[in-house]
Amino acid sequence: MAARLLFRAVIMGPPGSGKGTISDRIVKTFALQHLSSGDLLRLNIQKKTEIGIVAKSYIDQGQLVPDDVITKLILQELNSMRTNSWLLDGFPRTVPQAKALDDAHQINSVIDLNVPFETIRQRLTARWIHPGSGRVYNTEFNPPKVLGIDDITGEPLIQREDDQPETVTKRLKGYEALTRPVLEYYRNKGVLETFSGTETNKIWPHVHAFLRTKLPDVSQE
Ligand SMILES: Nc1nc2c(ncn2[C@@H]2O[C@H](COP(=O)(O)OP(=O)(O)O)[C@@H](O)[C@H]2O)c(=O)[nH]1
Ligand SMILES: Nc1ncnc2c1ncn2[C@@H]1O[C@H](COP(=O)(O)OP(=O)(O)O)[C@@H](O)[C@H]1O
């Protein structure tokens, strides 16, 4: 496929706004490759790589991993996705990250999930993940078939250490201070699309309708 036909998108929103959940629906519907910075970091932590060891100390504190560490990791990964359309989830989270991404790739659209912080706090205490795949559950919204067990592999689910209420508060503060300016950055570039709401099932049809104007729906193929 010629480079000009590739679609490059970013999905943004505060922690717990549904980026992972909506990304999952997007990749099932459109031919896009999904890259989640959080999943990639957790994989590195699991494998105890050098990056994983550095990242863990920040993540557990509810702080962002340093810009140079995450930027290098993501740009390296994107290098292996040169011929694909992609959806980047969780990166960029600071203006320096956004600028570094711009220097390497042209971003066509930024999907911004605007979900109130109170809604998010409630969701994150009920979030369970399958660490191997990044599959995400919620005991109220999308519970696993068997409590504590991944539907697909039968392996145990875990709660993220950084989903404890005090850490969530720190992450939301960090979002306000460091990530909100990235929305402004993309608004000024004319690529920001904001979707507001408190329920993924109500937000998703709007995201779907928007992407439908950019990409063919391949879910029936
Ligand atoms: N109650 C409720 N939970 C949701 C909804 N959408 C997503 N969730 C859950 O909220 C948590 C955060 O969603 P996730 O997609 O992981 O958000 P991310 O941190 O932005 O990637 C997960 O446990 C989801 O299953 C919703 O509409 N209602
Ligand atoms: N682009 C990034 N820059 C710095 N730190 C990041 C980035 N992406 C992920 N992280 C680190 O990983 C943690 C978990 O990220 P993620 O799984 O995207 O969480 P959530 O989706 O709940 O916001 C973040 O709180 C942060 O410490």
Number of domains: 1
What's the order of the H and E elements?
Answer: EHEHHHEHEHEEHEH
Shape, principal axes of CA atoms: globular
Q: Might you state the CATH topology name?
A: Rossmann fold
Query: Residue ranges: pLDDT <50 for 5 or more in a row?
Result: none
Kindly report the average pLDDT value: 93
Strand segment tally:
7
Name the bound molecules: guanosine-5'-diphosphate, adenosine-5'-diphosphate
CATH superfamily: P-loop containing nucleotide triphosphate hydrolases
What summary fits the major beta sheet? 5 strands, parallel
Protein model, in words:
This protein is of the alpha/beta class. It has a single domain (7-212), classed as P-loop containing nucleotide triphosphate hydrolases (Rossmann fold, 3-Layer(aba) Sandwich). Helices cover 46% and strands 14% of the residues. The protein contains eight helices and seven strands; from the N terminus they run E-H-E-H-H-H-E-H-E-H-E-E-H-E-H. The protein has helices spanning 19-29, 37-46, 50-60, 67-79, 95-104, 117-125, 165-189, 200-212, and strands at 8-12, 33-36, 86-89, 109-114, 127-130, 135-138, 192-196. The strands form two sheets. Strands 2-3-1-4-7 form a five-stranded parallel sheet, sandwiched between helices. A two-stranded antiparallel sheet has the order 5-6. Helix 2 (37-46) crosses helix 3 (50-60) and helix 4 (67-79) packs parallel to helix 5 (95-104). The radius of gyration is 17 Å and the shape is globular. The chain starts with 7 loop residues before the first strand and ends in a 9-residue tail after the last helix. The mean pLDDT is 93. Bound molecules: guanosine-5'-diphosphate and adenosine-5'-diphosphate (ADP). Residues 126-163 are annotated as: LID. InterPro entries: Adenyl_kin_sub, Adenylat/UMP-CMP_kin, Adenylat_kinase_CS, Adenylate_kinase_lid-dom, ADK_active_lid_dom_sf, AK3/Ak4_mitochondrial, P-loop_NTPase.
